[in-house]
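Note to self: user wants both folds in one dump. Writing first protein now.
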Amino acid sequence: LKALGYLSDQRFIESRVRVRQSRFGLQRIQRELAEHGLSLEENTLSELAASEFKRAHSVWRRKFNGLFPCDPVTRARQTRFLMQRGFSIEVIRRVFSKDDNSGDEFDTD
């Protein structure tokens, strides 16, 4: 099937990234592709890395209604949620930073 062009690793990677990028972080997408023995190209990797914060913020806002964690237990719960989605700890820290979230650049609903 590969020889006839019916199966393409590149099309599979593009499809997987397109479907997963709105809900998952770079680490999760890479892990899923690695399970199939595939990896991201350098340009796709850099595009996903560049949009990581915006995607993490969007996922967090949808799940928790944009309510910042008020105590350590809530913060830990929200952090675990984002980590399970494949976002890095640096990005998660930025999501919880009120300095990064003060702009209107995230009103994309």
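First done. Writing the second protein, which came from a different request thread.
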Amino acid sequence: MLRSNTISLRALEPEDLENLYKWENSPEVWTVSGTLAPYSHFVLKQYLANAHQDIYEARQLRLMIECHDPNSPTESTPIGMIDLFDFDPLHLRAGVGILIYDAQNRNQGHAKESLRLVIEYAFEHLQLRQLYCNILADNLYSIRLFEKAGFCQCGLKKDWVKTFDGWKDELMLQLIYT
């Protein structure tokens, strides 16, 4: 199980529909997710119905991040998601994306702990050789998060992402298992 003292990473469940609907349809997230239009409940229900596929079938793994209630060990609250995407079983690599949706849940170590757990899972259980991520160059919190986890910058894509504020550069970082 992907679990620490403060968070758990778990498979998506049908009960996650409303959180997915809210998070995937948030325009603030669209810039980094590449989304251009909202998702319907119907489309998200279909996605959840197929979420049981393993990473070798779907070429991705999306996990819900749940924060444990310190006063009740059996209670937890979904606060975001972490993804392994663009899974390549030949070259043993995958991309990593993470979302902690509400601002009050950020800067509390949840993203750091989630990333640690997914790195451990990717290298030890999936036996991947490397992970990578793409981060907008002005997203200093995410850059710092991934660098503290051992990722190194390996590329810069100039004017890569068009936003309402203009064009933004995107960094590529990677972590190679040694």
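Dump finished. Worth passing along: The chain has six helices and eight strands.
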